[in-house]
Amino acid sequence: MGKRIALIQGHPDTTSGHYCRALADAYAAGADEGRHEIRCIDVATLDFPLLHSKYEFEHDGPPVAIRSAQESIKWADHVVIIYPLWLGLMPARLKAFLEQVFRPGFAFHIGANAMQRLLKGRSARIVVTMGMPALVYRWYFGAHGLKALRRSVLGFCGFGPIRDTLIGTVESTHPDARLRWLKKLRALGRSAR
User: Fold this and answer.
1) How far apart are CA 187 and CA 190, in angstroms?
2) CA–CA distance, 71 with 12 (Å, rounded to integer)
3) pTM
4) Of 97, 139, 141, 175, which has the fewest CB atoms closer than 10 Å, so is most exposed?
5) Measured between alpha carbons, how far is residue 171 from residues 132, 154, 179, 185 in Å?
6) Domain harbouring 86, CATH code
7) What is the distance between the alpha carbons of residues 90 and 146, in angstroms, rounded to a whole number?
8) pLDDT at 112 over 90
């Protein structure tokens, strides 16, 4: 029996031709080949508001589109998040989506004496595309946006292990290199990693 995978496509633009979308399609195709079940969440197509206060975050119920995404994440053994790096971080729409999804009561619970990580037992992979070389982002800039997602969102809620794939210089990469990345994502999908 294969794994259950929730794939979150975090590129905020719905038009075709974005490399993030091709990478997500390659991962999904590989997951199908590996006989895994996969549910895709396309953040750009979801209708949800921004959260404006701590009260909204803690007490208001999530909108229908977010509840559906939460069900897919809860169902999954493995979650894949794919997005482009914008100004060193994820796009604002993806951040707003994560704020809506990873709320108290769904992702974690803080009790009087302890905190519960409610999404324990799930692994994750984060795939980030960027214009700069991946080594520059990781070593010179410290990959702070990636670290925040790993530690302050996924790790905080109990995910582990959390792996990442950084794909640099996407605008100037030779088509052969882009094809190799698509093959790599397809292989990751087959192995559900």
Assistant:
1) 5
2) 21
3) 0.96
4) 175
5) 9, 29, 13, 18
6) 3.40.50.360
7) 8
8) no
CA quadruple 111, 114, 115, 119: dihedral positive or negative?
negative
| Element at 178 (helix H, strand E) | helix 175-191
Residue 124 three-state SS: strand
Give the model confidence (pLDDT) of 40-87 as tens digits. 999 999 999 999 999 999 999 999 999 999 999 999 999 999 999 999
- Structural domain total, the chain: 1
List Cβ neighbours of 114 (8 Å cut-off, separation of 6 or more): none
Q: Where are the alpha helices (DSSP H) in 34-174?
A: 54-59, 64-75, 92-101, 134-135, 144-148
Residue 41 φ/ψ, nearest 5 degrees = -120, 115
Map 36-56 to HEC letters: CEEEEEEHHHCCCCCCCCHHH
Segments forming the whole domain that contains residue 126: 4-191
